[in-house]
């Protein structure tokens, strides 16, 4: 499935909820469902800087696609990174690099996060795109 299609699915799912408490609960459920990274990747080099809580993101490259795993010590943050994984994992590096992540604004996520969580979200996306750029550069050489 393409990134835009996954984003539209998420927008549609969020439209089912009337208030943000229900949306937060949904985000928490997303976090509970993600494949977490192995303990060996819970090190500083995989830690996303600028987040209110600890978030680790690891990526692997297989068959021309990038696959992400993550974990966090906070439920909401784990859910947020879970949404990003759902959109970006299993995509080609160019798709990840060029993804506009419009679903974040469409569901109103940024405006319902604290400033530090919002910064953390931006840094998570940036790190995931950096992984994609690194894999692209490595596998084009």
Write a structural description.
- The protein is mainly α.
- It has one domain (3-136): Sufe protein. Chain: A (Alpha-Beta Complex).
- Helices cover 54% and strands 11% of the residues.
- It is built from six helices and two strands, in the order H-H-E-E-H-H-H-H.
- It has helices at residues 3-14, 20-33, 75-88, 93-98, 103-106, 115-140; strands at residues 55-62, 65-72.
- A two-stranded antiparallel sheet has the order 1-2.
- Strand 1 (55-62) and strand 2 (65-72) form a beta hairpin.
- Helix 1 runs antiparallel to helix 3, helix 2 (20-33) crosses helix 3 (75-88) and helix 3 packs parallel to helix 6 (115-140).
- 33% of the residues are buried.
- The mean pLDDT is 93.
Number of helices: 6
Radius of gyration: 14 Å
Please give the domain count: 1
User: In CATH, what is the class?
Assistant: Alpha Beta
- Give the beta-strand count: 2
Question: Strand portion, in percent?
Answer: 5-15%
Chart the SSEs and their pairings:
Blueprint: H1 3-14, H2 20-33, E1 55-62, E2 65-72, H3 75-88, H4 93-98, H5 103-106, H6 115-140
Helix pairs in contact: 1-3, 2-3, 3-6
Defining traits:
single chain; 141 residues; mainly alpha; Sufe protein. Chain: A; two-stranded antiparallel sheet; 2 strands; globular
